Amino acid sequence: MAASVDPLVVGRVIGDVLDMYIPTANMSVYFGPKHITNGCEIKPSAAVNPPKVNISGNSDELYTLVMTDPDAPSPSEPNMREWVHWIVVDIPGGTNPSKGKEILPYMEPRPPVGIHRYIFVLFRQNSPMGPMVQLPPSRANFSTRMFAGHLDLGLPVATVYFNAQKEPASRRR
Amino acid sequence: MAIPMAMATPTDSLSRVWNMSSLKSSLPSSAVTCRLPSPSSRRPVLVSSPSPRLPSFSGLSPVNPLISTGLPGWQSFEDGFKIIDGGGRVYAMRHGRRVPKLNRPPDQRKALLRGLTTQLLKHGRIKTTRARASAMRKFVDKMITLAKDGSLHKRRQALGFIYEKQIVHALFAEVPDRYGERNGGYTRIIRTLPRRGDNAPMAYIELV
């Protein structure tokens, strides 16, 4: 019996990665023809290329998109929480991340053990980032909260997450 | 009730408009015929008699002893509820049933639950049917409670339940840090979309 029906709370995205926030923007993420809803199952082979992300908002606002995996390397032992897959800053509102600056290139989901959650977090920027953002030293042990704190991004404006697990290596006959 | 399809084909090969009269004649005679309300009048529309009623489904209601014709053995009210006649009493409610049977004999049920808890402790999050997920909770919590105690006897009890011994040793090593303050409720179940093959309701079960 979940105390809240919000899928982000039920899936513990709010709690493990984010704090409670009020969604103020819309973001729709597409891996090929498949639209991402909270908690849907995506095969890693379908997520090899970066997704198409449509962000609502005015073109004079700038947004930052972060994609992380809080269950690295395994959901029962998340030693490397979180593993960051993609960081794009300075995305003008109403467009997609190809118009922004890609700080960290996209890495496809490769869950070794268990079912991992992959979270897209969208922040609204107060000012253009430009050269201020430095690359994180490694993809492991990333903290979205601290990243937002460093760059003064505040609370997120939109979030969506999906699940992925390792596909069986050989095709079943 | 075969509808003569030949009559409903368009009479004119060139025109694509169906002939209304031929369609009406090919439909069963007891179909609903509505008169459209004329724009000027506002009187309610009279609808002619609807299609013949389906026989009402009475499979789950007790057979009325007053109506039944010559059914033997009417000792008491409960006899009317005997849907499955195997000697056991079958009620419509779940009063007092504490063990989920999972449609399996007891040895297979125990093996299924042992396998599921082993996999959950190994992977951290698994996707299975809702009935299995809610049946598993008790055993996962039991294993974590054994690990919290940490003595040799408890370790051997856990080794007798979980199929892989590395998992038991890893569990006993990390549970005191991870679940030291938490009292019970070490799992979380998130319901998800049904399975495509048989529409079984699925759920993710994960260690909190």
From TrEMBL, chain A:
Xref: Pfam families: PBP
Record Gene3D superfamilies: PEBP-like
Superkingdom of this protein's organism: Eukaryota
Protein name per UniProt: MFT-like protein
Family: Belongs to the phosphatidylethanolamine-binding protein family.
Source organism of the structure: Eruca vesicaria subsp. sativa
TrEMBL record, chain B:
Amino-acid biosynthesis found in the keyword field: no
Keyword list, A-Z: Ribonucleoprotein, Ribosomal protein
First and last residue of the signal peptide: none
InterPro entries to which the protein is assigned, alphabetical: Ribosomal_bL17 (IPR000456), Ribosomal_bL17_sf (IPR036373)
Keyword Iron: no
Gene Ontology cellular-component terms listed: ribonucleoprotein complex; ribosome
SUPFAM superfamilies, per database record: Prokaryotic ribosomal protein L17
Family: Belongs to the bacterial ribosomal protein bL17 family.
Protein known as: Large ribosomal subunit protein bL17c
